[in-house]
Structures are given as structure tokens and as C-alpha cells.
Amino acid sequence: MYIEKIVIEGFRSYQGPITIGPFHPGYNVIVGRNGSGKSSFFEAIQFVLCEEYHKLSPEERTSFLHEGTSSRVPSCFVEIIFNNSDNQFPGDSKEKIAIRRTIGPKQDQFLLNKKRITKEEILKLFPSAGLSARNPYYIIKQRQLLEIVNGTDDMRLEQLKEIAGVSSFENQYQEMKTLLHPTVFYLTRDDLFENVNRCLRQKEAEEQDMKQYAELKKQRRLVEFLLSEMELKKFTSLLTKAQRRYSEQSAQLIQAQKNLNEVEEEISKLAGKINGTKKEIDLAKFNFRELITKREKFLINQKNWKINLERLLENISKDREAQEKIEAELEQLAEDIDNRNAELIPIKAKFEAQEAENKKVTHNFAVAEKLQKELILKKHRKKLFKNKEERDTWIKEHMQLLDKKITESEKYKAQYEKELEVEKGKKPEFKNKIQELEDHFKSQLTSIINYERSLYERKNKRSQHQKQRKDLFEKKNILEEELNDLNHELKKADQALGVSKDVIMGLYSVAKVLDSFKQHEVEDNYHGMVVDNFSASEDLNTAIEMTAGNRLFYNIVESDEFGMKILEEMNEKKLPGVVNFLAINRINFKEQNYPADDDARPLIFSLQFEDKFEAVINSIFGKTLVCKNLECASNAVDRYKLNCITLSGAKISKSGDVAGGYKKNYKSMIVAYKARSKILEKIRETEEELKGIEEEFKRVEKETNENLTEITKLEVKLIKANDIQKNVGEEIERLREQLRDVEGNCEETEKIFNDFATDLEIVRGNKGNLENELQQDLLSQLSDEDQRQFQEVNDLIVELSCEKKKLVDQLIDLSSEKYRVEKLVKKEIFKKKKLEERLEELKVGIDKFNVELRMTKEEIEEIKNKIKEINKRIDEEKITDLVKVKIKFEEDLKKKLEIKEEILENFRALNYSVEELEAKIKNYQEELASQKEKLNTLGPVARRDVQMSCRELNERLKEVNASLKALENINIDVLHQFEMVTECSEDFKETHEKLLEDVEAARELMQIVSENKTEKICSTFQDMDKHFNRIFKKLVPGGSAKLIMKIEGEEDRYFEDISVQVIEAGNFTGVDIEVSFNESYEECQVLEQFSSGQKSLVALAFILAAQKCHFTPFYVLDESDYALDPEHRRSFAKLIASLSNKIQFISTTFRPEQLTYANEFFGVQIRNKVSYLQKISKKEAAAFIEN
């Protein structure tokens, strides 16, 4: 065993909670500056383990509480966790033992493994773990070292006695001495013998008169005994006759009571039936009015639904006609559009051909005009220039301009040609996008239609859910009312049981606990109450109830463990009530031998039960016989020594006690319990049904919420789809507008491109003409060729002008025709689109109407069924029949009341007679008891054959009394006193002799104890001396040490020279110490001559020697090496290291020598008045000490 961990919170300088450890089972060193908390840690261990800390005042407890920078903590604790793998702590097989002490100003408690334990129990536990007063040095304080070496010899002797454990011998010796003192005192009292002898002589003188008096007393006792016997027989006879009559009349009274109960039960049933019929009549009237109101309401609803049905049929018919009409129009429009497209194709082809021809003519016309202008300029050039050179110069300059213009025109032509290609490339892209969006638009329209259809269906489903919830709510209210009524009936049934409220509460508490257990566990271990596990004839109910009493409501369990489990659960839940258990595994069943008597049959033979409950039923009913009357019961008790009971409940125990019998207004507990069980069964069924309704309600509620969620989702989707459709439509229009812009741009760009192509052709022609002109002379007139060309150009211009005019007229006509046909096609396409949209809307509308139509038909059918059901219920509410039934019940009730009066009259007479008999029986029983008590008082007498009558005996009693009166002045107690004195004298002698023997034996035992004590001190001293010398040599190589026992009247010497038998423990006066720090014994010195360091070495050797004599599992050293020099500190550390193989050491130090041999290292620091202790490395420990 060793200390594994220490947990500190709020103790001294430790604020915590802080866990210190795990400690090594060997050598542990704790280092730290002065004031850092080493001493607080050391004191924490003492706080838990040392007895001197176990009795603290409130002020002392408060002083241990941590007080940091703020206020003092309210409480603190120190917990020491031991490794108990060697099971040194007894009575607990756990590998870890935790002892915690918690204190506060008003608190001081110990916990052992988290369980409360007293200080006395802790103190008893420590010695078994090796922490006893015999070796108080397992915690070594600094001052203890000084006490050992600076203490007197007699103090060291007391320490040696503690180590030897002689306190038990001393306690035994003192106890025997204390007991022996009064015994010796009484042995010296000789006056007691004289007093007894004197009293004996006086009583002998009075003995003669007393003998005559005693003889008369005997005669009087005999006469009184005979008179009491006669009276006893007389009253026994009277009691037997009275009991026989009582049994007969009790049976008659019970029968009358039974008849009365039956009549009252029938009256109660009839009254209940009358009340029930009244309620049924009232309910029937109320239901009739309600049903009429409901029927009128349903008829109005039916009418409204039929109107709605007609409206729906009309709407569907109209929509279908419109659908057919639109479909026909769409078919016609499709045909017209096809015809228009067929008509448009040749017109477009002709228009395009004419347009191309017109472009060609226009181009040729422009070229011809330009050539014409050039020829005219050439004709007038003679007038502009003086000579050819000037003309050529101008032509060359003009040709340069033309070249420049040709370059620019080619550039622009290429640019517009490229733009035209780009614009033409955009057209199919826009058309594809428009087609995609149109398809998307149609799909969105389909989605919207589907969403609207689904949303309509979901809303109809919501209406159905609301209706279902309403119906379930009505059913739930009805069941809750029924449950309230049943619970009210259950309370009445609980009162009718006739048991205490605590027992009833216990029944409910057990039921609650069993509900919390697992079903298979309950089925295997709990078997219900006793009353649930047997059956019998109703005639036996009274006998069974009187026999069992409240045991009928004891709970049968398989084992006592399960019963305890139920009780623990009840206590944990703080459930009320009284509960009793019968554990099958705890009942010892023995076969009972029953008599073969028809007048006294075993009660258990009349009970039916399962074999496994035989022991339980036998323990309650096995020792009871059922008898037909009280006389038979009385005889059976005397013969069979078993309890007997009559059917009326009169019970006679085997000890002779009589109880029970007729009880006025008695109600059977078993009958009441069965009625209660039926109510409980109805309650369970109603609760199950209510639970089913609630589950159905939850299901409908869940479906309603899911449906509402779907409605919300569909509404969101519908809004989103409408927004998407709107955006798509807008996007289609925007793209169509862009397409139109692109087509316009294409036409414009193509026109510009053609203009540039024509201009380029004209400019190149001009350039060619100018080049030709450079080769010619400057003439005043055109050349023949030029004139011919000029004439041809003029003719061509005229011809092209006519042709152009003709083409333009044709194009205008074709364009008008083309526009007209295209407009018609667009109009018809737009109309077709609108009709298609309208057709889709009609289809959706028809679908909606069809769904609504189906639901309307279902609603109308449901209303028809409800009206049919209401009509049926109206027919069933036969109020007249109920009134007739009520009148019949009232007549029967009147007859039963008359019968009840007759029974009551007979019952009262019997009851009066039974009460009289009860009074007589009670009187006889009292007389019998009085005579029995008188006989018991008289005691046994010597019987004689006396033939005397009662009168003669009374005369004889008077004579004896007169004689006794004459002797009334004598000491009537003389014989008794004489016997007592004689007895006292003999006892006194016997006691005196025994006391002499006891005194001698006690003195011998005291001598043995004293010798054992002396022997124990001597042996311990010798062991201490041997170990002290060995350990000192290890601490001081070359040194020597010895212990010297001082004996009164003897010189100091070793025990080898003295016989133990000649020494008494009281002769020891002290223990001295002599040591030498070299090999010479002659140089041994006494302690007063040594330095403080040398004294510390001696004290440490003494303590470790004590450990050798009495093992302790660990040592806690508080700076034990503080006064040693470095060499001796190393020896001390080396010694501890050698001992730590078997013993744990925890040492605080601020010296470096112990670090060399230690296994674990811990450092203490203090910050803001709070100490922190943690495991550190050897290097860090060395740094602690260096700093």
C-alpha cells in the first residue's frame, strides 16, 4: 500500500482543486522555496491521518481555510488516494482507497470511497493498515527530531513503550486491579457473618406459630379452589349454551343480513336503473332535439351542395362547349395559316426576283448616268484647258484623287460586307433563343397548370383534415368525460375496500413503479396481489377476509431483491403509501397435517390457485379451519391446535382468543375489490382508446402540417413559376424586338454595301476613261467613238429609266400583296396562340371543376348517409318505450321496498337477540377469566376427595377464616424470612469461597500480564538497539551507537547481563543514547555533546529503527535533512533509497543530495498567495534548489 495521489482544495495556501501525483511507490522528493507551500502540503497529510488533528474547534477549522486576495473560502477538503493492490486496508477489495476530509466553520466529515464514515471508524481503520500509535513516526516533523534527542530518558522510555505496544498490557492490568479492589474489601467484612447468624436464631423461635397458621391457610386455599372450580364449570356450561345460541342466531342474522344486502342491492340496482332510465329519457329527448337540429342542418347543407353541384355541372358543360368550339377554331386556323403560307411563298419569290432585278437596273442606270456626265465633261474640256499638257496634268491629278477614292471605297465596302455577315449571323442565334424561350414558356405554363391543380387538391385535403380533427376532438371529449366518471367511481371503490388510505396509495405507487420497469422484468418477477391469485366461493368471502385481513393486498414477488428494487424506486420517486411484499424465495413451505372432520375443513382446500403460489397461500390460510358454528370451532381449536373460523367470520385462535363474528353493515372487501378491478379494467380500456384517439389526432395533425407545408411550397412554386413565365414572356418580346432591329440593320447595311459597290465600279470606269483620254489629243469635239458611246449611253439611260419605273411599280404592288398576306398570317398565328392559351385554361378549369365535382358528390353522399343515420337514430330514440320501462322499474322498486321492511323487522329482532347474547357471552367470559385468574392466584393444591356442596364449602370457609383471624397478629412472613435468611447464609459462604478463588486467580493473571509487558519491552528494546546501531552505521560509516536501559537500583548495562524474570516493568526508569562518530566505542558521547546535525542523524536512526520493529507502509519527511552536512545528507538519501524498495518515502527538502537517489520529483511555487505543486523533472528540481 502507498499514497498514489493527493487532492487539495481550499486548504491553507492551496486554492485548488489541485491533484498532486501520481506518487512513486518508492522515493519522492518535493522541492521549493521557503514559504511556497511545502509545509502546507505536509500539514494536509497530517490533517487527514493524524489523530491530533481530529478534534478541532470552529476557530481552528476556520484557520485551515484558504484566504487569498479575496475572502476566505467557505470550506476545504484534502483527499488521499491509496493504492491498495496488496489489500492492506481490510474489508474492501478495491485497488484504490480514497479517504477525504472536508471541514468548514460548522462542518467536519470524513468520506471513505465517497461514503460517510465517522472519526471513530477511521481511527479503527488506520491500525489495520499499519498506521497505528505503535509507530507514530510515519509522519516526521522537524520538531520531532529535536524531541527525540533533546527529550529526557523517561520520555524515550515512553516512546519505546509505544513502539512495543504495551499499552494493552497496562490497560488489562489496571482493569483487573480496579475490579479486584472491591472484592478484597468485601472479603474483610466479618460483621456480615454475625448479622446473618443472629437473624437466623430469631426466625427459628417464631417458626412453631407459623406452622399452625400455614395449615389453616392451606385449608382455606383448598376450599376457595373447590368453590372456584364449581363456578368455573357453571360459567363454562352457561358460556357454551350462550355461544351455541349465538352461533345459531348469528347464522340467522347473517342470512337476514345477506337477504337484506341482496334486497338492498336489488333496490340499488333498480334505483340505478330508474336513474339511468331517467338519464336515458333526458338524453333521448336531448338527442332527439340535437338530431332534429343536425338533420335540418344537414338538409340545408345537402341543398347547398346540390346547388353547387348543378353550378359545377353547368360550368363544366359550358367549358366543354367552349373547348370544342376553340378546338374547331384552332383546326380552321391551322388550315387557314397553311393556305396563307402557301399563298405567300410565290409572292415572296416573285418579290425577291423583282427586287434583285430592280437593284441591277438601278446599278446600271447609275453607271450610265456617270458615263454620260464624264463624256459631257470630256466634250467641254477644250474650253477648260489651253493645251494637252495642262489637261494631262489635271487628268493625272484627278486620277490620283480617284485612286484615293477607290482605296477608301474598297475599305468601306469590305467593312460593310463584314458587318453584313455579322448581322446576318445574329439572326439564327436570336431565332434559336426565341424558340428555346417559347418552349420554356410553354413548359412553365404546363407547370403552372399542374401546380394549380395540385394546390386545389391540397386545399381540399386540408378541409378533410379539419373535419377529421373536429370529429376526433369530439370523440376525445366524450372519452375524457367517461374517464372522469370512471375515476370518480374508482375513488368510491377505493373507499368501499375498507382498508387504510396508506394501503390504497401503496397500490397506486406500486403500479406506477411497475409501469417504469421493463415488461419482461415485471412478468418474470411480479405476480400481483394475494387477492388476485386465488378464487373461492362467495360464501367464504367473510372467512377469507377475517383470516387474511390486509394481507389480501400484499404484493407477491419472485424474490426479495425485486421487492427491494420496487421499494428503492418508490423512495427515489418519493411515492406515498404502505407496501408489503411476500417473496416466494423467502417463504419456507411445510406440509400441514389436517384432520378428517366434516365440521372443521381446512380453508385452503376451498381455494383455487396455481401451484407456484402454494407456499404464499399456505403461509396465510394454511393454519385455519372453517367450521359451521362457533361451538364446532371451539372444539376444533382444543383438538387440533389450529386457528378456526366460522362462515360468519367469528375467529378463535389456537391460543383461545375469540374475535370477529357478526358486523353491522359489513361489506365484503373481495366483492369491493372485484368491482374496483372491473372499474380499473374499464379505465385501462378507455385510456387505451383515448391513447388511440390521441395517436390518430397526432397522425392527422402531422398530415395536416405536412399538407400545409406542401400548400406553402406549391404556392411558392406557383408564384415563382408565374414570375418565371412573366420574365420569359418579357424576354421573348425583347429578343423579338432585337431580331427586328437586326433585320433592319441587315437591310440598311446591305443598301450601303451596294451603294459603295456601284460607286466603286463608276470610279474605276472614270479612271479607265481618263487613262484612255491621256492617250488622245486635246480636241474641240468628241471623237467618233466617244460620240457613238455618248449616243448609246443616252439611249441606255432612257431605256433603263423606263424599265426602272416599270419595276418600281411592280415592286410596290408585290410589296402590298406580300404585306397583306404576312399581316393575315401573323394575326391568325396570334389568334391561334391566344386560343391555345384559352384552351389550356379551359382544360385546367375543367380539371378543377371535375375534382370539385367529385368532392361535392362525395360530400353529398356523406351527408345522405349522415341523414340516413340520423333518421335511424331518431327512430331508435323511443322515448315512449323508455317511459314504460321506467314505470315498470318504479313498480318493482316499490315491491322490493316492502320486502325490505319485512326483512328489516326480522333483522332488528335478531340483532337485538344477538346483542343480548353478546353481552351475556362477554359477561360469562369475564366471570370465567375471573375464576381462572383466581385459580391461577391460588395455585396448585393437594386434591382430596371432598364430597361437599357449595353451601357446605362456604360454611367451612367461614370457620377457617375465623381461625385465621385469631392468629392475625403473628408474623406471617416468618417462614419466608427464615428460608431467605438460611439461603442467604449458604449463598454468602459459597460466594466468600468463590471470591477467594477469584482473587487468587486475578493476582496470578496480573503477574502474567506484568511479566508479558516486561518481556515485550525488553524484546523491543533489544530489537531497537540492534536496528539503531545498524542504521546509524549506514548513516555514519565507521560510527557506532547503542541504547542504554536505565533500571531502578541497577547500573546501566546491556540486557544480555540481566534476566528478564528478575526485572519488573515498573523498574525501568528511562532510555539513554550513546553514539560515536568513529570506530572507537570508548569515545561514545552523550547527546548533549553533539551538534544539531549530529543530533538529527541520531534521531533519524532512532525513527528508522522503530520502523524495523513495527512496519509502516510509507513515511512523510518534512525537511529532515535540513541540519545535516553534505556528506551525511548523501548517506541519509542513500539509506532512504535502499529502504524505498519496500516502503514509500515522500520527503520535502531544499538540499540537492536527495535528488540523486529519488524516483519522482515535485516542485512547489506560490503566486498571488496561492501555492501550486506539480510533477517536474530531475533537472527542473535541481534548478529549483540552485535558485
UniProtKB/TrEMBL annotation:
Molecular function (Gene Ontology), one example: ATP binding
One Pfam short name: SMC_hinge
Domain SMC hinge: from-to ranges: 524-637
Domain of life, per lineage: Eukaryota
Any GO BP annotation: chromosome organization
Coiled-coil residues: 196-280, 306-343, 462-496, 676-752, 797-1012
Keyword annotations from UniProtKB, A to Z: Coiled coil, Nucleus
Record-level GO cellular component terms: chromosome
Subcellular location(s) per record: Nucleus
InterPro entries: RecF/RecN/SMC_N, SMC, SMC_hinge
Entry's family note: Belongs to the SMC family.
Record's protein name: Structural maintenance of chromosomes protein
